[in-house]
Amino acid sequence: MALKTQPDLADIHVVGIPRGLLYHRYGPLWETFFRELGREVIVSAETDRAVVEEGTARSVDECCLASKAYLGHVASLVGRCDAVFVPCYASCDPRAGFCTKFQAAPDLVANTFRDQGVRVLSCLVENVSKPKEVRRAFAEMAARLGASQVLFKRAWKAGVRALEDARRAKAAAQEETLRLLAEYRAVAEGDPTGATERPLAILLVAHPYIAHDEYLCGTIVEALESMGTTVLFADETNRARTYKASFGFTETLPWVINRELIGSILTLQDQVDGIVLVSAFPCGPDSMTDDTIMRYIQGTPILNLMIDAQSGTAGVETRIESFVDILRYHQRGGYVHG
Amino acid sequence: MADILHLPEEARSRVAVEERRREPKLGHRKFKRDRHKRIKVAFFRYCYYDPAFKFFVEQVLDADFLTLPEATKRTTEIGEQNSTDYVCTPFKHILGDYVEALEAGADVLVQFGGPCRLGYYGELQEAILRDMGYEFQMLNFSRGIEQGALGWAKQCLKTVNPDINIPAALPKLAATANMAVKLDEARDFYLANAGFERERGAFRRVWASYRDALRAATADRDINEAFREAMDAMRAIPLDKPADPIRIGVVGEMFTAIDERSNLELDEKLMAMGVEVHRMMNLTNRFIRYNEPNLRRSAADYLTYDMGPTSTLTVVAAHRYAQEGFDGVIHAKSAGCTPEIDCMPVLQRISADAAMPILYLTYDSQTSDTGLDTRLEAFYDMLSMKKEKTK
After folding, report:
1. Domain boundary among B131, B164, B197
2. Inter-chain contact B305–A284, Cβ cutoff 8 Å?
3. Residues 252-291 of A with CB under 8 A from B
4. What is the distance in angstroms between the Cα of A165 and the nearest Cα belonging to chain B?
5. Could you say which of B114, B139, B164 is where a domain stops?
6. Do B16 and A254 touch (CB under 8 A)?
7. Domain for residue B206, yes or no?
């Protein structure tokens, strides 16, 4: 930039962050970053029925469930903050892009809430695989917020560290669970009486904004756990590794999150007993990748679940119960020798 | 129209239990090339651009072009049966085209790439067709995209013809682009005037013979000559055009807004009612002369960022039609097209600000012709009543 950026956003003191979509991927970075810049941060409350209903009322019918919930979160922040943070994550890397929803989000929010006078605070991240470009996007936003270079550098460093720490902790926890599972399995197999039941591990494959949203996916996780299975989240596996592994599966898949999820399946397939794919209806990327996964990932039973606003919890429990029954039967060698 | 809100019960869950594993990747198939056999290349059916595709295959790739007959109901059915339920509609149409092309003897299928789901069309379609038992090569422009034009050239050499004479092919590539531009230019004139011809079908005849002439073209000169002749012929057609006709702008996504099979001949239906039709979306404006940041400036009140592959063109076109005092705009998209769905709140603002009605059409493979007729007639009646009032 040739001209010095004007601090035209300096009057924003309270930043609202909707708890939806990419918040579940980059949340620690965003929160820490704004706090370090001396802003007050309000994250909207957990998703509930009212949030989804409000979002649905404000959305075009055909939007996916996650996007409707997101608009509900924005609505819940109206009047509680000076500006809502809605970043624009574009897809300049053809192998590490996002659903176009994340690119459209700032203008979508601005136009939907124009009558409420909602101010949108945003930055343009064109390519997430280039850390320098991501940094530049946030630097520009910080300058517009009136932050000095020094302050920005500190905030950025703290934000990146918070994100990395959070990710590392989750990946480490998953590895620990896998280690315990292996130990447990060895014990069960070594038990001559056969009285020790072998553990069942399930890999839950879903976009982070579905998998870690209590309202949208909580019942599924609860149902799986209440059946005595151990649930592993595909998005918590080490990202650098899963992203790389995905190229052994697909050459042209354009979405980074789907790549990481597929990479996680490939990495963990031998250590889990079943895979549960959860998609929010009608998710664009999943409409195609679920099909490819069902075609090419074989040898492990897969349950493909679709959630929409109407379905709620009804039916989900029965489907999961029958799936876990299949897995137990499978574990006893039912389909191989039966 | 499209009943996408109600999720079919069977789509809600699916279980797969498969004992054997398979190689988790769509491998590159080596194919035995017979040096003396010419390779037959097929595109999917796309709008009115088949002469340009033919020119590209014959002149640039130096291979044979396989012309597909008109699509039928069967095409759509095959595509629909073999796709997942909620993938976007063009995917289904194209899959049906590919099956028909392979049945007709195609060796190579061509697919493009793009920043939305289109970027993954090729790979998934290849996987589906292979699982259906077909053997073929796919020239998929999603591959090699990291290296840009060089990567694409490598793909052409690898999958179609290793003997392409590159220095001779480059001017032919420029001529292919010229053909697309000339097709779009003639189409613009056609859309604006064919609704007012005195003798029914006069424009259609010229348009058909123009495309025939382009199919026979082998050089830039032929293209320019065919264009001149067609434009002269169209200008000579007597018109009954009122001073202030109803003008409608068609906006929307690449495929559905233009492709007549997908939008159930939207253009012809509008022109039959006596409407002057405008459409900014075409290959010329989206690719050959596309400058997204500058285009976006003209609608800066509504857009801060590029919202998606065709979003800027959709919003800017609607905004421009509003400024130019058009009577209405039709937004045509396929069911589930995320970028265009996200444009709709923006279009709604433009419509409200300019008091210009917008008709939103969502097409899936089940959309009925009569249903569309009713909606278009109602829209037309509303626009003409509004026009009468403001006179």
Report:
1. B164
2. no
3. 252-254, 266, 281-282, 284-285, 287-291
4. 31
5. B164
6. no
7. yes
Q: What is the pLDDT along chain A (338 residues), one digit of tens a residue?
A: 445 678 899 999 999 999 999 999 999 999 999 999 999 999 999 999 999 999 999 999 999 999 999 999 999 999 999 999 999 999 999 999 999 999 999 999 999 999 998 999 999 999 999 999 999 999 999 999 999 999 999 999 999 999 999 999 999 999 999 999 999 999 988 888 877 788 999 999 999 999 999 999 999 999 999 999 999 999 999 999 999 999 999 999 999 999 999 999 999 999 999 999 999 989 999 999 999 999 999 889 999 999 887 655 668 888 999 999 999 988 887 665 43
Q: Which residues of B touch A297 (CB under 8 A)?
A: 24
Residue burial A277-295, b: 16+ Cβ < 10 Å; e: rest = bbbbbbbbbbbbbbbbbbb
Contact indicator for B318, B358 with CB cutoff of 8 Å: yes
CA distance A320 to A305: 9
Residue of A269, A287, A291 to mutate for B, most B C-beta atoms under 10 A = A287
CATH number given to A14-163: 3.40.50
Please state the domain extents for chain A: 14-163, 199-337
Residue B120 touches partner A, C-beta closer than 8 Å: yes
Q: Do domains A14-163 and A199-337 have the same CATH topology?
A: yes
Architecture of domain A199-337: 3-Layer(aba) Sandwich (3.40)
- For residue B19, give both structure tokens: 């004992």
Contacts with A, B 326-365, CB within 8 Å: 335-336, 338-339, 341-346, 348-349, 362
**With an 8 Å Cβ cutoff, are A296 and B24 in contact?**
yes
Q: Where are the alpha helices (DSSP H) in chain A?
A: 23-36, 49-58, 65-77, 100-112, 131-144, 149-190, 208-211, 214-226, 239-246, 256-268, 284-296, 316-331, 334-337
SS3 (DSSP) at B112: coil
Amino acid at B336: G
User: pTM for this one?
Assistant: 0.94
So what's the ipTM on this one? 0.93
Give A-chain residues touching B115 at CB under 8 angstroms: 91, 94, 97, 100, 254
Question: Are B277 and B307 contacting, i.e. CB atoms less than 8 angstroms apart?
Answer: no
State the nearest Cα–Cα gap between B348 and chain A, in angstroms.
9
Gap between the Cα atoms of A281 and A102, Å rounded: 17
Find the helix or strand (DSSP H, E) in which B137 lies.
strand B137-140
CB contact under 8 A, B16 and A294: yes
| Residue indicated by tokens 């124009």 | A114
A117: left (phi over 0), alpha (psi -120 to 50) or beta: left
**Residue type for position B270:** L
String of DSSP letters for B4-57? -SS--GGGSEEEE--SS---SS-PPPP----TTSPPEEEPPP-TT-HHHHHHII
* B25 part of a folded domain: no
Please tell me the total count of domains within chain B.
Answer: 3
